[in-house]
Amino acid sequence: MFSKVAPVSNLGNVAALGPLSVIAIMYMVIGFALTLTIKQFFWVPHRFRYGIFVAGGWASIDLSNSVILDITVSFHFEGDDDQTAAIAYSDALSLIFYVTFFTFGRKLVAMDFVGPDQ
């Protein structure tokens, strides 16, 4: 991750990390809201009452590097510089994903196993 982020770390790209972080958090909030809606209208197993939030909130953050590289190779982009920047932005999204998942997500899943099975 560091080998892709370090070459593109200039003032313009570092300034884009703030809005990128906000977008990553918005993706998670939208996932949580949709999951809450699903939980209100559909049956959810007792041992999955918090795990469904993990499945919905952290579901759509990860981007495949091969897809990013295939998209940035087209003529609309500027070659290797844009490919490296796209991978760096994807790594920033992944960093936010993993930090929030392993601090909050595992606690939500653990809450499913507290108490008796109903």
From TrEMBL:
<keyword id="KW-1133">Transmembrane helix</keyword>
<feature type="transmembrane region" description="Helical">
    <location>
        <begin position="50"/>
        <end position="73"/>
    </location>
</feature>
<protein>
    <submittedName>
        <fullName>Uncharacterized protein</fullName>
    </submittedName>
</protein>
<feature type="transmembrane region" description="Helical">
    <location>
        <begin position="20"/>
        <end position="38"/>
    </location>
</feature>
<keyword id="KW-0812">Transmembrane</keyword>
<keyword id="KW-0472">Membrane</keyword>
<feature type="transmembrane region" description="Helical">
    <location>
        <begin position="85"/>
        <end position="104"/>
    </location>
</feature>
